[in-house]
Amino acid sequence: MLSSKRPFLSILLILVSINVSTNSLNPHKYIEVNAQKMVLILRNENHLFKTEPEVFKNKIKVIFEPMIDFNRVSASVMGKSSYLNASSEQRELFISVFKESLLDTYAETLAQWNDAIIETDHGYSGTGGKIISVRQYLKTSNEKYPIIYKLRKYKDGSHKIVNIIINGINLGQTFHNQFQSLALEFDNDIDLIILKWQSDFFADG
Predict the structure, then answer these.
(1) Which of 108, 68, 75, 66 shows the shortest CA–CA distance to 94?
(2) Is the overall model pTM greater than 0.70, yes or no?
(3) How many domains are contained in the chain?
(4) Most buried by CB count within 10 Å: which residue of 26, 67, 99, 117?
């Protein structure tokens, strides 16, 4: 189930890996600085994926995890009805499963993007209440992908990504549709949905 999303997810990871220390920067600089940090890791430490894969994955996860609002994203993926019907334990479990599946999937697929070049479109701006949009382009030797980041600004002045649109593909909506499909399949049984999500991920990995 998750394997079909990996090409897009791997691009996502390259472009949106955010370090907490840069969280106070304006959104465009925030994205740009940390995207370039990720590119450096891919170019200079890409060999670790073959020799020490867990070390490579952890380097990616340390950068990637703090920049996503997993609570908000997971709630959006579940949808209002499923989220409200789920117990607090079920919500926490899905957040954990969802986060781990993405972190591991991204890290496993990064190695192929060691030739990436990042360009930030500083002329592009988009706001909608607390949501700020930033656009970048990822260029590989063969392709060019437009990326739009949706960042939420919080009271402390920090920003976290809550959605990304990659080459016209809305990842938040894609995952939401995926969850809803499982909800129909398992008659809204949250436990079974989580179990299926997790089992499909490990089957892919």
Answers:
(1) 75
(2) yes
(3) 1
(4) 67
